[in-house]
Amino acid sequence: MIAVPLLPCASIDDMQTFYAALGFRRTYRQTRPDPYLAMSLDDIELHFFGMPDFEPANSYGSCILQVPDTATLHRAFSDGLRAAYGKVPLSGIPRMTRPRPRKNAEGLSGFTVIDPGGNWIRIFPAKATASPAPSVETGKLARTLENAVVLADSHGEAAQAAKILDGALTRTTDASAAERVEALAYRAELAITLQDPTRAAAVLAELRAIPLTSEDRERLGETLAAVDELCLDTVSDAS
């Protein structure tokens, strides 16, 4: 049995361009009598229909994709977006979040693509082969980070996520270096999502100043690599 999401959009041209950047290929397209587009990547099928005067920011379109490897797919999507847009867009529409464990998804590490139609494509590992991502820390700051990820990446409430994370970063004085790096890395991403490059640069500078042991750097390898990319995107936004 196969289910194919049928999602709304304002322009099938914009959808085709965006999904082509992610590596999808067009399998069907019509402009009359009604705009319709079908895009495919491996065994993923997404279909879109155009609506006059449709406003992507008000869209409730959403679907869940279960894939074998979220990290590999995110890397492929990131490479395609950088080739097409010069960066991975983290604010506005379209945009894409980075993979993180989701407390509201049994700890599975997922990410979300918000396409030009305002549709939230929520991507998680297939449960049959997936296991919860290991947690680097379990302190108060780490728990606040988990809540912030749910608010922003699952519900789109980036401003509220930034508010609670700022409070925890200010109040928590006993967090480990690794715990603080994880929280600051996400706070910088939220600043870019909220179109505040000045705040993002300040947070990244604070993160860079944290002394890390070789063990810390090994445990935080993926996060630090994401921070390097985030720094590039911050420079791109400021230029």
Give a written overview of the molecule:
This protein is α+β, with helices and mostly antiparallel strands and 239 residues long. It folds into 2 domains: 120 residues, 2,3-Dihydroxybiphenyl 1,2-Dioxygenase, domain 1 (Roll); 99 residues. It has 8 helices and 9 strands. Strands 5, 6, 7, 8 and 9 form a 5-stranded mixed sheet that branches. It has a 4-stranded mixed sheet with strand order 1-4-3-2, covered by helices on one side. α4 runs antiparallel to α5, α5 packs antiparallel against α6 and α5 runs parallel beside α8. The protein is elongated and about 60 Å long. It starts with 5 loop residues before the first strand and ends with a helix. One of its GO terms (biological process) is response to antibiotic. Keywords: Antibiotic resistance. This is VOC family protein.
Q: What is the mean predicted local confidence, pLDDT?
A: 89
Biggest sheet layout: 5 strands, mixed
CATH topology of the largest domain: 2,3-Dihydroxybiphenyl 1,2-Dioxygenase, domain 1
Number of helices: 8
Order of helices and strands: EHEEEEHEEEEHHHHHH
Q: Distance between termini?
A: 49 Å
CATH architecture annotation name of the largest domain: Roll
Shape annotation = elongated
Radius of gyration, in Å, reads 18 Å
Organism: Actinopolymorpha pittospori
Keywords: Antibiotic resistance
Protein name: VOC family protein
GO biological process, one term: response to antibiotic
